[in-house]
Amino acid sequence: MRLLNIIFLFIVLHFLVSACTTTKKEWGSKEEKNNFEHTFVESGFASFYGKGFAGKPTASGKIYDPGLLTAASKTLPLHSRVMVKDVKTGRFVVVTINDRGPYVSGRVIDLSVAAAKKLGIMRKGVTKVEVFLVKN
């Protein structure tokens, strides 16, 4: 009987410990990235446009909200969804194209403030990226 109590206690402790343990899923992990289909489009530099544009209309007709995950592209279709991946860090963010730009040489996409925060580029302002079209 004592052996059964020890086994039972061991099993209960095992489940308690495993229930309290969480696995940290890093932003932009390989598992997350593979949750949707995507096709490489282009590479170049990403920047972001700030709060000074908040409340102004975008090329899609929607009002720019720095808190939404949106971006501007000169070539990608409006309303398309793209994954923007930081080449150096591997972090990524999925955004909806709702505006035209950027109009600075070498830049392929302008991110909203929220998207720039997710990508981790608020301090440096510009980063080398790869852009992928997301298939729904």
Question: What features would you describe in this structure?
Answer:
The structure is a single chain. With 136 residues, this protein is α/β, with parallel strands linked by helices. It is 22% helix and 32% strand. It contains 3 helices and 6 strands; from the N terminus they run ααβββββαβ. About 15% of the residues have low confidence.
Topology:
Elements (H helix, E strand, L loop, with lengths): L1 H19 L9 H4 L3 E12 L21 E3 L8 E6 L5 E8 L7 E5 L1 H7 L7 E9 L1
Parallel strand pairs: 1-5, 2-4
Antiparallel strand pairs: 1-6, 2-5, 3-4, 3-6
Quick recap:
With 136 residues, the chain is an alpha/beta fold.
Could you list the spans in which at least 5 consecutive residues all have pLDDT below 50?
Answer: 12-31
Tell me the number of helical segments per DSSP (H or I, 4 or more residues long).
3
Give average pLDDT, whole number. 81
Task: State the strand order across the main sheet.
Answer: 1-5-2-4-3-6
Rounded Rg:
21 Å
Shape: elongated
Secondary-structure element pattern, one letter each: HHEEEEEHE
Strand content: 25-35%
Structural class, from helix and strand content?
alpha/beta
Number of strands: 6
**Distance separating the two termini:** 58 Å
Question: Tell me about the biggest sheet?
Answer: 6 strands, mixed, barrel
The share of residues in helices is 10-25%
